[in-house]
Amino acid sequence: QTQDPLERLTRVAYAYMAYDDSPSVASHRFYFDIVMQTVMEGGLFYAQRHFIHELHRKVIDRIADIVLAGISQGRLKASIAGDAHKIAVTYLSFLDGLTLYALAGGEYIDVRGQIDFFIRKLAPLLQSENVVPGT
Predict the structure, then answer these.
(1) Cα–Cα 20 to 30 A to 102, which of 32, 85, 91, 115?
(2) What is the rounded CA–CA span in Å between residue 10 and residue 31?
(3) CA 132 to chain centre
(4) Cα gap 91→95, rounded to integer Å
(5) 33-87, pLDDT tens digit by residue?
(6) Predicted confidence band at 25 (pLDDT cuts at 50, 70, 90)?
(7) How many CB atoms lie within 10 A of CB 81?
(8) Any long-range contacts for 112-121 (C-beta under 8 Å, 24+ apart)?
(9) Helices in 18-127 by DSSP H: which ranges?
């Protein structure tokens, strides 16, 4: 519901993590069980690795679209357009890593605080010089 690309990335992260309800935690655990069974040779889904790749590709494409939309609006630097896909992969990797860490010791980590910190540190690298932060 917002045009600000950094706010959109934050909302994607909150939705991806969705630790406000217990069914989400269970679905994250299930997802990572599937990932483990996919990457382990001899795992139940090892022969179907394309399944996980396809799931990740959809999320990566969505994140890259947010970056490209931010560039077209002039809110993000035009110079990052060629790296939109890499930025998306890095962002998804951050979210996957944060998810694993939270699953291992969720009561010890402020997930939203970590997301906000990441976005604040990422913003200067992505934002156009013409955009006033917070607008």
Answers:
(1) 85
(2) 21
(3) 24
(4) 6
(5) 776 667 667 776 667 767 777 778 988 999 999 999 999 999 999 999 999 999 9
(6) low
(7) 14
(8) 112/14, 112/17, 115/10, 115/13, 115/14, 115/17, 116/10, 118/13, 118/94, 119/6, 119/9, 119/10, 119/13
(9) 22-39, 49-72, 84-105, 111-126
